[in-house]
Prior knowledge:
The chain is α+β, with helices and mostly antiparallel strands. The chain is 18% helix and 28% strand.
Amino acid sequence: SGFESLFLRQINTIMLDIPKIQHNFISIEEQKELNAWTLAHYKSELFSDARMGVPGTRLTTRYFKQENSLVFPECAHRIRDRIKSHFNMKNDLLPGYCHGIVTGIGFDGGDIYPHKDPSWHEGHYTVHCNIVTQYPEIGGITNIEGIEYKTGERDLLIYPVSEMAHAVSTIRGTTPRILWVFGFSLPREDNL
Length: 192
């Protein structure tokens, strides 16, 4: 469509004022690989408490700082590259976390309160491309500026997290919510 074409040309501007969903952005095989990696590592030193809500209900790799030690599955790097190509991202910088990739796991009682993420570089804003690869039985739904976005388990949700308040509803059940975040710091001016 004409709007989507305009969106793709101007992703590096603040035109990302409406979150976008790309359905089935990853394959079932990639979903399984990402879930397996998170489930195999969430009890390791790579993960720490997300520092939001009830302690211990959300764990994340966001705060792990030893760049060379954190080895995400190869498919995570391929997905990040695919995102850059798909949205024609140019002149992006890495946000303040390892490889521009974060994974998190949320358990019963976990949630995310409304917040905005930092702009990691002057003159840039932070964009997240989020893929929930596993939903809990109840909850775990992303809310952006008061609107719920219930994506499928392989869909990509893209929006400027430094510009829009976002939250996640309380997780209920025995199945954890697994999220993969592919982050980008994009220049505020249009450089495409």
